[in-house]
Amino acid sequence: MIQGKPIFESVLAPVLALIVWSLLIWIWMYAKRIPAMSKAKVNPQDARFPGALSGLPDDVRQAADNYNHLMEQPTIFYALAFVTYLLSLQSPFTAAMAWTYVGLRVAHSLVQLTVNLVLARFLVFALSTVVLMVWAGCVVVGATQG
After folding, report:
1. How many distinct structural domains can be found in the chain?
2. How many CB atoms sit inside 10 A of residue 87's CB?
3. Phi, psi for 89 (deg, rounded to 5)
4. 101 vs 34, 125, 136, CA distance in Å?
5. Which of 6, 12, 65, 97 is most buried as measured by Cβ atoms within 10 A of its Cβ?
6. What is the structure's pLDDT at 146?
7. Are the C-beta atoms of 106 and 21 separated by less than 8 Å?
8. Are 78 and 119 in contact (CB under 8 A)?
């Protein structure tokens, strides 16, 4: 229970889920990067410049790119979840939007970390953006009507 609501009706549970997913991707990134750097005999100090690790295998770079992606657009998700919570605008619909967003971000990660088809990634990214837009619109309407 979060604020008297079942966990799946709260916008905070998906926040925790995306945080945990992001930390798992961080582990995945370094589980790939460290052995690849060692194999390629890359001096860790060389990584201080952008692009210094561009010679690493694709799957290693994809993991790092995905971690970076999880630090970009999801900042809007986190802010929106906390605004929704703090304005007491949680509802089954906003919780569904939050869970849908998290599901789409996980799908985006899985596409990027496996087949890495740009059009598939873009489709999932675009859908997740639409979810944020709809959710934000509902919060704006709710906040202005309250």
Report:
1. 1
2. 12
3. -105, 15
4. 30, 10, 12
5. 97
6. 61
7. yes
8. no
> What span, in angstroms and rounded, lies between the C-alpha atoms of 117 and 111?
7
Distance of CA 121 to the CA centre of its chain: 13
40 CB-near residues (< 8 Å, 6+ apart) = 55, 56
Under 8 Å between Cβ of 32 and 60: yes
Report pLDDT for 47: 86
Query: What is the maximum span of the chain, computed from C-alpha positions, in angstroms?
Result: 60
CATH of the domain at 59: 1.20.120.550
- Is a pLDDT exceeding 90 seen at residue 125? yes
Q: What pLDDT is recorded for position 15?
A: 97
Any bridge partners for residue 2, and if so which? 5
Question: How many helical (H) and strand (E) elements, i.e. helices and strands, does the chain have?
Answer: 5, 0
Paired tokens of 22: 């992001």
Q: Report how far residue 25's alpha carbon sits from residue 67's, in angstroms, rounded to the nearest whole number.
A: 6
- The verdict on residue 2 lying in a domain is no
Q: What is the mean pLDDT of the chain?
A: 93
* pLDDT for 50 beyond 80: no
Residue type, 44: P
1 assigned to some structural domain: no
